[in-house]
Specification:
The protein is built from ten helices and no strands. It is mainly alpha-helical and 238 residues long. Helix 4 (65-84) runs parallel beside helix 8 (160-184) and helix 6 crosses helix 8 (160-184). The protein is globular. The two termini are 22 Å apart.
């Protein structure tokens, strides 16, 4: 059951240029995996899924380097710092629940409607946004794309697929930085994370292939949103 849902989560997130960490964390919370193993597991899966997602979106000419690099300049060191920081399990659940709520809104298209006109991004704004997202990404084990992509769309800095391509690479570099900070503390990636990786990679590859060319998976998105709602409630109540 866990592996089947993991496959679907990776597919759906990769189809919109995301690594899937918020979905993996929600899934692990639902199945009551130890909090200590959730962050490194999500970061590891993120690296592989976001990497393949970026490759497909870039291959289809949706990537904009000038939109990406200002975010990355500040997000990478901050994600490393966040990965190095250890926080109380109770606080971790509350912060994670907050970001899952954002993921739910994103899945339900509550925000993130494309603008009719694309405008140049702000370098200063991108640096500030990148640092804030990077820090929280490293702390809780997400790549930050679930936050970055709607910001890009809302500000009119890119269309849906450009936001997906930029977010995919953003997630990849942040996840690498976060997991590096985690390992430098002397901690190890849980063994089960490596068992989950092939399933997540398969789902992510199929999702990225589909999403980089088409977008019509609303039913599956609503199902995933339902899973995230249940996980969010559990995190706040348990």
């Amino acid at each position: 059951m866990f592996m089947s849902i993991l496959l679907v989560v990776a597919f759906l997130y990769a189809s919109v240029g995301h690594g899937g960490a918020s979905g993996y964390l929600a899934l692990m919370a639902l199945f009551s995996l130890p909090v200590i193993s959730m962050k490194p597991t999500a970061l590891l899966l993120n690296v592989f899924v976001s990497g393949v997602s970026f490759w497909f979106f870039k291959k289809n000419n949706h990537f904009k380097w000038n939109l990406f690099y200002p975010f990355a300049i500040t997000s990478i060191p901050m994600a490393f710092l966040g990965g190095y920081i250890s926080i109380d399990a109770g606080l971790y659940k509350k912060i994670l629940g907050f970001f899952l709520a954002i993921a739910i809104l994103r899945m339900l298209n509550i925000f993130g409607t494309e603008k009719n006109k694309i405008v140049p991004s702000s370098i200063t704004g991108s640096l500030i946004i990148g640092s804030a997202i990077g820090l929280f990404s490293g702390m809780i084990g997400i790549g930050g794309g679930i936050i970055l992509s709607p910001i890009i769309i809302l500000l009119g800095w890119g269309n849906m697929k450009q936001a997906a391509a930029v977010s995919a690479l953003f997630i990849f570099v942040n996840s690498l930085a976060g997991i590096t900070g985690f390992i430098i503390q002397g901690k190890q990636i849980p063994l089960e994370a490596w068992y989950f990786m092939p399933v997540a990679l398969l789902g992510g590859s199929l999702g990225a292939l589909y999403g980089s060319q088409k977008f019509n998976i609303n039913t599956l998105k609503y199902l995933l949103a339902g899973v995230l709602v249940i996980a969010t409630v559990k995190l706040f109540l348990v």
